[in-house]
């Protein structure tokens, strides 16, 4: 198989972990007889510095002709929260590609349980799959700022908007994952307060009843779920939720895994011809405090390669092999400095070990 991959490494630790992802991809290609042609492009703060635009036209062209996209991280204190921000590059990219579902697996390795503040006996057996809606809700609704009346000062608005169609497609995707796993789906909303959540619950109930009668669905309010997730993480399997709740809950879920640097993600959509559009990135940010020092673990980026092999190219065997090898290396005790203060592996040495062990 031959595929064209857009590589957007972005800011902070983005370039160093993405470099390891690209090296791993070429190792996979050599082992399994595939050719991955990588094309680099700018995004985020790096793109602002070079062009003034967090998602330049040249980058849009590169991702548009790619079969899949690998991304590092965007953002950093250098660019602040002004009118032009690195994060606009990522949100714009998700909108451009139409990647409406963000799949974030959270696997807890017993060997890493000591990294989590949650007790090992509660963590044992945790294996979650979050499906976060990614192109709707408050992140994409109309924004405004106007002068308020009667001494209010400025009034700001972020409209939270969801359509039945947007809810239906992401719930369907989550339900398909649930069908292939435990047969259970948890839908998280705030239906006791928000109108968008009441629609979310109605649509979810209908889709599950009509199309997935074999999958059990449970609705949980987001405030309660944020507590239960830590108290009894093994009670859940596939979790579907809207954009803002999913952003927050997946960072919280990273605490179960021990470090946000360990988690991969796949942002998925569908082209007009029915093929999968995929954007693959670790869920961590740019971690400017440790950037450029070889301290960042590349696990989230490497596991994102596995998700790409699986979801964009159907290379299940290669994906399984990458995951087993990364977990094997962690189980054998390889640690970078971001995970433990005495972590002896640099980002590059960790990536090399994974490539050496990949059979
Ligand atoms: C994430 C990140 C992004 C988001 C930021 C960088 C825009 O936090 O992927 O979770 O909020 O979606
Ligand atoms: Mg986030």
3D architecture notes:
- α11 packs across α12 (347-357).
- The chain has helices at 14-32, 44-51, 57-64, 86-97, 120-123, 164-180, 195-211, 222-231, 243-257, 299-311, 316-331, 347-357; strands at residues 2-10, 35-40, 68-73, 101-107, 127-133, 143-147, 154-158, 184-189, 216-221, 238-241, 266-270, 276-280.
- The protein folds into 2 domains: 1-106 and 261-359, 3-Layer(aba) Sandwich (Isopropylmalate Dehydrogenase), CATH 3.40.718; 117-257, Isopropylmalate Dehydrogenase.
- It has a 10-stranded mixed β-sheet with strand order 2-1-3-12-11-4-5-10-8-9, sandwiched between helices.
- 42% of the residues lie in helices and 20% in strands.
- α1 (14-32) links the parallel β1 and β2 (35-40).
- The chain is an alpha/beta fold and 359 residues long.
- It is built from 12 helices and 12 strands.
- Magnesium ion (MG) binds at residues 247, 251.
């Amino acid at each position: 198989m031959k595929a064209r991959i857009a590589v957007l490494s972005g800011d902070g630790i983005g370039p160093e972990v993405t470099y390891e992802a690209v090296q791993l991809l070429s190792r996979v290609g050599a082992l399994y007889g595939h050719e991955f042609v990588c094309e680099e492009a700018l995004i985020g703060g790096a793109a602002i510095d070079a062009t003034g635009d967090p998602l330049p036209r040249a980058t849009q062209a590169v991702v548009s002709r790619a079969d899949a996209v690998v991304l590092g991280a965007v953002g950093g204190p250098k660019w602040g929260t002004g009118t032009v921000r690195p994060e606009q590059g990522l949100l714009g990219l998700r909108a451009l590609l139409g990647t409406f579902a963000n799949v974030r697996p959270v696997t807890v390795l017993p060997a890493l349980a000591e990294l989590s503040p949650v007790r090992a006996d509660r963590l044992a057996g945790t294996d979650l799959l979050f499906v976060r809606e990614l192109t709707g809700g408050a992140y994409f609704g109309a924004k405004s700022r106007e002068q308020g009346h009667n001494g209010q000062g400025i009034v700001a608005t972020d409209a939270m908007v969801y359509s039945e169609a947007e809810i239906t497609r992401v719930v369907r995707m989550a339900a398909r994952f649930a069908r292939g796993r435990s047969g259970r789906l948890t839908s998280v909303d705030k239906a006791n307060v928000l109108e968008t959540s009441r629609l979310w619950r109605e649509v979810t109930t209908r889709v599950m009843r009509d199309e997935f009668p074999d999958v059990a669905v449970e609705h949980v309010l987001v405030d309660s779920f944020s507590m239960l997730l830590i108290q009894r993480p093994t009670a859940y399997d596939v979790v579907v939720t809207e954009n803002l709740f999913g952003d927050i809950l997946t960072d919280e879920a990273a605490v179960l895994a021990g470090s946000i640097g360990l988690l991969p993600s796949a942002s998925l959509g569908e082209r007009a011809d029915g093929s999968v559009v995929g954007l693959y990135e670790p869920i961590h940010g740019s971690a400017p405090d440790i950037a450029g020092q070889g301290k960042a673990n590349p696990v989230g980026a490497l596991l994102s390669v596995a998700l790409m092999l699986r979801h964009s190219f159907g290379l299940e065997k290669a994906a399984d092999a990458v995951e087993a090898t990364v977990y094997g290396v962690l189980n054998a005790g390889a640690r970078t400095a971001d995970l433990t203060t005495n972590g002896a592996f640099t980002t590059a040495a960790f990536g090399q070990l994974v490539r050496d062990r990949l059979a």
